[in-house]
Amino acid sequence: MKTANTLPTTLQEAVSYFSEPDYTFDFAVAMRWPNGKIECPRCGSEENSFLSTRRIWYCKGCKKQFTVKVGTIFEDSPLGMDKWMIAVWLIVTCKNGISSYEVAKGIGITQKSAWHMMHRIRKAMQDGSFKKMRGEVEADETFIGGKARNMHPEKRKRRITGRGTVDKTIVMGVLERGGEIRTAVVDNRRKKTLQAEIKKHVQAGAALYTDELKSYSGLAKEYAHEVINHAVSYVEDRVHTNGMENFWSLLKRGIGGTYVSVEPFHLFRYLDEQAFRFNNRKATDLERFMLAMENVWGKRVTWSELTGKDARQETSIN
Ligand SMILES: [Zn+2]
Question: What pTM, to 2 d.p., does this model score?
């Protein structure tokens, strides 16, 4: 028999679990206020009365009502919590990305709603880890996109066109073997840009492998830097960026196959999604779901962040 204590481990169980409004509500409350103290999201007061029939609290501090959704990515969404939970489950458990079309079909909402929902969830999947990598690290960059020629000229203009790489977006990645990956959209492939990304994520003294791109030269001062020699390749050779290359091909398969089109200013969210799955590849579906949920409850994405201006700023911060 199903009880609220047994969290779902499969999609089927998740659908069944979150179709119970009481389970979903209790789950949400436990995620939102893990220590059990119901705190007003507006004023921080813990003095409140709970209106169980409407599942809202009345805050005695600021004299206003609040729900479990206030101040989270779920706030202002007309979609039920059950649909949100299943959408998160689908996104964090799919192997290689899922389109807004599939999510829309799967939970019975419009594609536009699904798209909006998925971007909010991706925001929650951003990696908050800033621990520097110190083992064996691969760094590499790649170009994404190139379909802008099929676009309306106005739309094309909006595309970020990096120097000499019209219609393409450059993505930089740093991967610690057996560990995590960090990615970022970068403006160019100049030395300063790429090396700044490496220094941001990799501890001095670590073993660093890159290809022969000139922008990587000079890193030997800080790292045990070795450059791939394509002329010599032994199976035992540790000097390669195969891990990064595998990640790029997964990413591109995801973008090409399941995401209809990715505007450059949205690309970093897809990167976050792919990196989240990669970094938590050893976790179970439930563990990945819970990890995403922990972030979901603390973050909020506004419409302007989703649709452009602010997202670009975030990209450069990333
Ligand atoms: Zn209050």
Answer: 0.71
